Amino acid sequence: MKSAEDAYGHMLLDALEGAEASEIVERDDGFVETDRFGAALYLAPYAKWPSRQRRAMRYVRGRVLDVGCGSGRVALHLQERGHEVVAIDVSPRAIEVCKRQGVRQARALSIDDVDERLGPLDTIVMFGNNFGLFRSSASARRLLRRFHRLTGDGGRIVAESLDPYATDDETHLAYQRRNRSRGRMPGQLRIRVRYRHYATRWFDYLIVSPKEMEDLLGGTGWRIRRLISDEAGDDDDHYVAVIEKEARGRAS
User: Fold this and answer.
1) pLDDT value at position 231?
2) What DSSP element (H or E) covers 122?
């Protein structure tokens, strides 16, 4: 990734050095949104995480792959709990932030390049709505089958998403209708991230309802064991899914 394209990584570096920094997400229909939390959540200690994320940590076990690790907050917390963690992100500067914060194993790597070279895995974590990194239904099923092969018996995926239908905003509803007309999943976003004069390339990002997630898992050897929502007063459209291998199923 070129420096000019690493908007997310530059934001994290500036935030780590004490600057007020916030990303802008631009959708391909012209909709623009500024992250209301800024970089605060990316660098937040465990005690300040949303309740759904704190509660989901109890389901992480063994050797962990942190996909889309960002600043490394999840990897750091799991390290402190005694887990061996491999943290990956496509942003080279995010990986620099991880290393500066003390993540022991962090590397610039795409989810598409996850393979046996990373070693045996027990849990794959995808926090910060990073189920979205699967991008599309076809890509999700392909990667879920790969994750099934790469994880041992009792393997888990602990992944966060948000329900795209928990809105009455006509701008978002119109976008979902446009997606359906184009043969895309309603919550399949085409976006880019901007920060100052930096901008990523356009990429797909998939947000799904719990039912859609369950449907995507079908035939991949995985099933949802548990859904974890926030306590009252937090973001009620977000959830974390604890996904486990089917007891006797095999990825097709």
Assistant:
1) 74
2) strand 121-126
Q: Tell me what pLDDT residue 230 has.
A: 84
Query: In this structure, what token pair is assigned to residue 167?
Result: 């809105």
CB 44 within 8 A of CB 102: no
Q: Is the pLDDT of residue 250 over 90?
A: no
The residue whose two tokens read 């306590």 is 231
State the pLDDT at residue 249. Answer: 45
Alpha-carbon distance of 7 to 1, in angstroms, equals: 10
Reading the block at residue 191, the tokens are 């976006």
Full-model pTM: 0.94
* Closest among 61, 39, 194 to 124, alpha carbons compared: 61
For 25, phi then psi, to 5°, come to -105, 125
Please name which of 76, 215, 200 lies closest in space to residue 134, comparing C-alpha atoms.
215
Burial track 164-192 (b if 16+ CB lie within 10 A, e otherwise): bbeeeeeebeebbeebeeeebbbbbbbbb
Q: Domain 45-185+206-245 belongs to what topology? A: Rossmann fold (3.40.50)
pLDDT (tens digit, 9 = 90+) per residue, 163-174? 999 999 999 999
Residue 37 burial (CB < 10 Å; 0-12/13-18/19+)? exposed
State the amino acid at position 233 in one-letter form. Answer: G
Domain boundaries, the chain: 45-185+206-245
Using CA atoms, how far apart are residues 89 and 177, in angstroms rounded to an integer?
Answer: 31
Q: What percent of the chain has pLDDT over 90?
A: 89
> Rounded to whole angstroms, how far apart are CA atoms 142 and 137?
9
**DSSP β-bridge partners for residue 123:** 64, 156
